[in-house]
Amino acid sequence: MTDERNEAVLRVVPRLRDINANGHIFGGWVLSQMDIAGGIVAHRIAHGAVATVAIEGMKFISPILLGDIVSVYATEERRGRTSVAIRIEVIATRGIAQEQVPVTSGVYTFVALDANHKPRPLPV
């Protein structure tokens, strides 16, 4: 995990309804939180609407447990003409000791959209 993360884009506590059959937080819930955080950063960069077009290199390192505080960090990794790749990292803060547990990371690519929902160039 990178040391570049300063402030969480998103911080959330999963609920009982977010657990899977193993008693861990459902992976799809985690992906959704990552998409939300990445979309916030991509929207700022694009100065407008964006859509997720790709997810690269997802690997779950540790499970999220009920009661964990989930922090999602997102930073720009690379930029194209109409798209931006955002590196997203998820950290779970666990227990009284506030242990920081790396959960997953990946790169989400977002494309900037115009009023007709077609790709448009990113601002300079």
From TrEMBL:
Q: Which UniProt keywords apply?
A: Hydrolase
Taxonomically, the superkingdom here is Bacteria
Q: Where is the HotDog ACOT-type domain?
A: 2-116
Keyword Hydrolase found: yes
Keyword hit for Glycoprotein:
no
Q: Which InterPro entries match?
A: Cytosol_ACT (IPR040170), HOTDOG_ACOT (IPR033120), HotDog_dom_sf (IPR029069), Thioestr_dom (IPR006683)
The protein's matches in Pfam families, at most eight in alphabetical order, are given as:
4HBT
Q: Which residues form a coiled coil?
A: none
Q: Which PROSITE patterns match?
A: HOTDOG_ACOT
Q: Its Gene Ontology molecular function terms?
A: long-chain fatty acyl-CoA hydrolase activity
A single Gene Ontology CC term? cytosol
Which biological processes are named by the entry's GO terms? acyl-CoA metabolic process; fatty acid catabolic process
Listed PANTHER family: ACYL COENZYME A THIOESTER HYDROLASE (PTHR11049), ACYL-COA THIOESTER HYDROLASE YCIA (PTHR11049:SF5)
Give the family this protein belongs to, as stated in its UniProt record: Belongs to the acyl coenzyme A hydrolase family.
Q: What is this protein called?
A: Acyl-CoA thioesterase
Q: Which organism is it from?
A: Sphingobium amiense
